[in-house]
């Protein structure tokens, strides 16, 4: 149900319609996690091998992410961190961001994500450091 505010000529949507997109995103993420939780990535042949790992022997920042998601779905947070600690932080970051998105949608305010360049560079640096450290001899604890 839409209504038009005569002063601003702005169309306001109902709460259920404002929650449709966040609900759809959550459904897609939940379906992906359900699939990974059902189809074990520890069993060979279910998922493609990381090309970087296959051809160079180096772990990319995503290596172990599916095994991490599988362990996370099954409630084994320690194993999820062991498989890919950065992925677990990403799951938690998604949960926080999604919650903020839903609160904004309920209140009728758009969620605007406008990271500063320093934040983008910091995220890139974190990924780079994680990748380099997990491939060094002393970073073996970060291997999937």
Structure description:
With 144 residues, the protein is mainly alpha-helical. Helix 2 packs across helix 4 (65-73), helix 4 packs antiparallel against helix 5 and helix 5 (77-83) packs across helix 6. The longest helix has 23 residues, at 85-107. 60% of the residues lie in helices and 4% in strands.
* Radius of gyration based on Cα positions: 20 Å
Helix/sheet category:
mainly alpha
Low-confidence regions: none
Largest sheet: 2 strands, antiparallel
Order of helices and strands: EEHHHHHHH
SSE layout and pairing:
Layout: E1 3-5, E2 10-12, H1 15-18, H2 20-38, H3 51-56, H4 65-73, H5 77-83, H6 85-107, H7 117-134
Antiparallel strand pairs: 1-2
Give the gist of this structure.
The chain has helices at residues 15-18, 20-38, 51-56, 65-73, 77-83, 85-107, 117-134; strands spanning 3-5, 10-12. It is mainly α and 144 residues long.
């Amino acid at each position: 149900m839409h209504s038009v505010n005569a002063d601003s000529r702005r169309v306001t949507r109902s709460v259920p319609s404002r929650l449709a997109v966040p609900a759809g995103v959550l459904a897609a993420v939940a379906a992906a996690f359900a699939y990974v939780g059902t189809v074990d990535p520890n069993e060979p042949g279910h998922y493609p091998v990381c090309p970087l790992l296959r051809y160079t022997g180096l772990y990319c920042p995503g290596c172990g992410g599916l095994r991490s998601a599988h362990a996370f779905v099954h409630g084994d947070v320690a194993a999820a961190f062991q498989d890919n600690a950065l992925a677990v932080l990403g799951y938690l970051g998604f949960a926080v961001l999604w919650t903020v998105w839903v609160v904004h949608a309920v209140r009728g305010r758009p969620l605007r994500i406008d990271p500063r360049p320093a934040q983008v560079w910091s995220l890139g640096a974190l990924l780079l450091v994680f990748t380099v450290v997990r491939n060094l001899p002393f970073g073996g604890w970060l291997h999937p």
